[in-house]
Amino acid sequence: MIIGVPKEIKNNENRVALTPAGAKELVKRGHTVYVQHTAGEGSGFPDEAYAEAGATILPTIEATYEIAEMIMKVKEPIEPEYKLIKEDQLLFTYFHFASYEPLTKAMVESKAVCLAYETVEKADRSLPLLIPMSEVAGRMAVQKGANYLEKPLQGRGILLGGVPGVLPAKVLILGGGIVGTQAAWMAAGLGADVTIMDVSLPRMRYLADVMPANVKTMMSNEYNIRKMIKNHDLIIGAVLIPGAKAPHLITRDMLKEMQPGTVLVDVAVDQGGCIETCKPTTHQDPTFIIDDVVHYCVANMPGAVPYTSTLALTNATLPYAIQLAEKGWKKAAQDNPDLVPGLNIINGDIVYQAVAEAFDLDYTPVVKYLAD
């Protein structure tokens, strides 16, 4: 198969979809890998490293899309890329379709095959290609939140871990999945007073067993959320419904109940956000303030630590990329059930139900394309 790795053009996105080591694994199996000039530079991987691994460097994004049968990316295509995508071309990347209708409609019109990292799902319901970036984002949420609690950045002016004789900051985490768990570990390690809210009692029992003493669990419901936001300094939204928009757990009216300088970090913003007032921001302009509450809503948080993120992502995606390259998307999905829910759009049909429902569009069961 011919695989193309374009340079990411989303604002301040420095990750790349494939490391030189990943390129070498594909090349030695007889596949052809084309990498756009400087695609890996932001992650610390120069063109020379890809060339040594057997990849061919192409000068432009247009040339990369034109030649490739499978495009490997990190972030969803943005508008300048729409016209470059070809019918039947396989796109293997994060899409988060349910949060952005223009992207969904553009990919339908392209008649490409869109296989989304974020909805590839194992039999145990885990999301193997979302986990590594969720781990990074969960840890970064606390790192960024601690920073924006500083007074010069219009936060409350509170040190996350406190000092002897001074209480630590209170951190509230909405969601006890991968993001929430990693955020809790990070905040607890810095000495904060942490509460995780979730709707699953089995999950909270697990977290209560493994977390240190400064992490508590609480059932997530509107009454409890309204009670907790009044005295918490950093609130992290870590809610995920695979492939669908996140529910709004914090609404516009709740901001007036928070202390001035409270910091909100919505890690779910690339899936619509679980905080009603959050809208996607960039690393270049990451925050805004409503009712004296600081909102940090960067949609590609792991892009700020691209070396770590690129290695973590390739570790997870490469086995699937090899299967797709060896067998083609249809046979790979027939042989590996993990890939079936990853298929979101095929040749103009939306085959992932939550995406179709998000915009009231027609839904086609994926079995139509996988039947022999």
TrEMBL record:
Occurrences of domain Alanine dehydrogenase/pyridine nucleotide transhydrogenase N-terminal (ranges): 4-137
Enzyme class: oxidoreductase
Alanine dehydrogenase/pyridine nucleotide transhydrogenase NAD(H)-binding domain segment(s): 149-297
EC number: 1.4.1.1
Domain of life: Bacteria
Keywords: NAD, Oxidoreductase
GO MF term set: alanine dehydrogenase activity
Annotated catalysed reactions: L-alanine + NAD(+) + H2O = pyruvate + NH4(+) + NADH + H(+)
Record-linked PROSITE patterns: ALADH_PNT_1 (PS00836), ALADH_PNT_2 (PS00837)
InterPro entries: Ala_DH (IPR008141), Ala_DH/PNT_CS2 (IPR008143), AlaDH/PNT_CS1 (IPR008142), AlaDH/PNT_N (IPR007886), AlaDH/PNT_NAD(H)-bd (IPR007698), NAD(P)-bd_dom_sf (IPR036291)
PANTHER family found in the cross-reference section: ALANINE DEHYDROGENASE
Family, as annotated: Belongs to the AlaDH/PNT family.
The protein's name in its UniProt record: Alanine dehydrogenase
Organism, as annotated: Algoriphagus pacificus
